[in-house]
Amino acid sequence: MNLINDPWIPIRRKNGKVERITPWQLTDGTDADEIIDLAAPRADFNGALVQFIIGLLQTTFAPENARQWRQRLQPPPTPEKLQKAFSSVAYAFELDRDGPRFMQDLTLDDEVNALEEKKREERIKAISELLIDAPTGKTLEDNTDHFIKRDIVSKLCSSCTATALFTLQINAPSGGQGHRTGLRGGGPLTTLVVADNLWKTCWLNILEKRDFLSTSGNPERVRDSDRFPWIDKTRTSEGGNETTPEDAHPDQVFWSMPRRIRLRFGNQNQVDACDLCGGSDDVMCRDYLTKNLGINYAGPWAHPLSPYFIATDGTPSPVHPQPGGIGYRHWLGLVQNSQSSKGKRRPARVVEHFVRDRQSDRRLWAFGYDMDNMKARCWYDSIMPLILAPGEIQKSYEFYTEGLINAAQEASQETRVQIKKALFKRGTDVRGDLSFVRSRFWQETEADFFECIKELRDALNESHDVTRILEKWHKRLVREAETIFNDVSQTGAFDAADPKQIALAWNELRKSLYGEKLRKLLGLPEKTQVAS
């Protein structure tokens, strides 16, 4: 199968029809049946596939300037124009032929065949191990695969195999000795601007050619293997060899290949069904070859689809999802810059570009794996409103927005602290996790936050005083903090709770909520402390 010429990408049309298309059919259809979304059998596959399409567009169809970018947004280019552009790299996107294969090590077959039988068998892995959340190694040995069971996936069709391979390579977590992580580390956070159809979603995350080439990598590295590392013998990390941005073309940020893998396909005697998507195929993949010491991407690399934390010494680190999900509390760093004593949080280049050019309001899609070394703890996937302000008020808007979030951060933290004081004696080693308090706080106030920043933008646009909006947000934070405190402290789950202790903690919470610090974060004048 060729990933440019053959239909393999699962999509959903506006009329509800689900089918598979070639990449260049992205703009196929009328308004009634336009392609609105991806329709893979797994959420992480959808996240990978949209990056595949964006990477293909950025690699072969990047606009020369802002005018050309706007011209291609609406109306979109015809499928024939996309086919012409994508065909220029079709040679690099063969999945199952002899010779170079998409995202697969060119010489691994020969290397493994040269090994003695026992070592050769150790290099063969079940196809299920391509899935990041599949149980492997010690999990299987200890029989602790409670939630994601073994042997559920034993064969994959070509479409799911290609997607699983790409998903692993761009998210690659640590995989044991010498098994390299992805170019952005294991399980990076990806953030995209989202529109109402798949073409616009992809195109909104494309940079002008000059901007992209200056992001990361060396534009003077023009060999095929500098863009698509599987075209030639793998630049392995044996002997401590590293691959820096100077060693590769910028295109390789989309096509990084940290893992050495070679798929093994087998023809079926009859058409069989894929264990993931249920689709029929006469060619199935049941296992693959692998070997450690793949490409070791040594930074600082900068991927245009990921936000970064910039340390005080200037070193960038890609952001990774953390327990608790993704929501408006991450607005600082996902949508606008944020500075602290530890460094700077910077949005993904594509988001930064979109915000800077002040396009119309859209949505922000943030997703990625929360990894604990080799273990996938959770897949986070969130879409939130992307509410932007015009240039003349942008600085004021961002200033007040940062105040709203910092105030929520302070209120949620103080709520957790006082609940702990209410329920546990000072110095007690608290067993259990109280992080649910803060998670609930953020979740319950999220809709109000987005309503608030819309009002804030409108007020600033009309040169109105924003004090009323800030006071409204302050009242909302107070109400939520008090509600959560009462719910948790009166739940009855803590039999040893002391009423006096609860009352003291309640008073401390109220003093904090109405105190100088919280109001200062919002830019509000201090008020007289409330009575206990």
Describe the fold and architecture.
With 532 residues, the chain is an alpha+beta fold. It folds into 2 domains: 9-291, no CATH class; 322-522, no CATH class. The protein is 37% helix and 16% strand. Strands 4, 5, 7 and 8 form a 4-stranded antiparallel beta sheet that branches. It has a 4-stranded antiparallel beta sheet with strand order 10-9-12-11. It has a 3-stranded antiparallel beta sheet with strand order 2-1-3, covered by helices on one side. β1 and β2 form a beta hairpin. α13 (394-423) packs parallel to α15 and α15 (467-489) runs antiparallel to α16 (499-513). The longest helix is centred in the C-terminal third of the chain and has 30 residues, at 394-423. The protein is globular, with a radius of gyration of 26 Å. Residues 143-147 have low confidence and may be disordered.
Keywords:
37% helix; 4-stranded antiparallel sheet; single chain; 532 residues; alpha+beta
Describe, in short, the structure shown.
With 532 residues, the chain is an alpha+beta fold.
Q: Please give the largest β-sheet.
A: 4 strands, antiparallel
Poorly predicted ranges (pLDDT <50, ≥5 residues)?
143-147
The count of β-strands is 14
- Main structural class: alpha+beta
The DSSP helix count reads: 17
What's the topology here?
Blueprint: E1 9-13, E2 18-21, E3 35-38, H1 43-60, H2 66-73, H3 79-87, H4 108-113, H5 117-122, E4 124-126, H6 137-141, E5 156-157, H7 158-171, E6 190-194, H8 198-203, H9 209-213, H10 224-227, E7 260-273, E8 280-291, E9 308-311, E10 316-318, H11 331-334, E11 338-340, E12 343-346, H12 349-356, E13 362-372, E14 375-386, H13 394-423, H14 435-461, H15 467-489, H16 499-513, H17 516-522
Antiparallel strand pairs: 1-2, 1-3, 4-8, 5-8, 6-13, 7-8, 9-10, 9-12, 11-12, 13-14
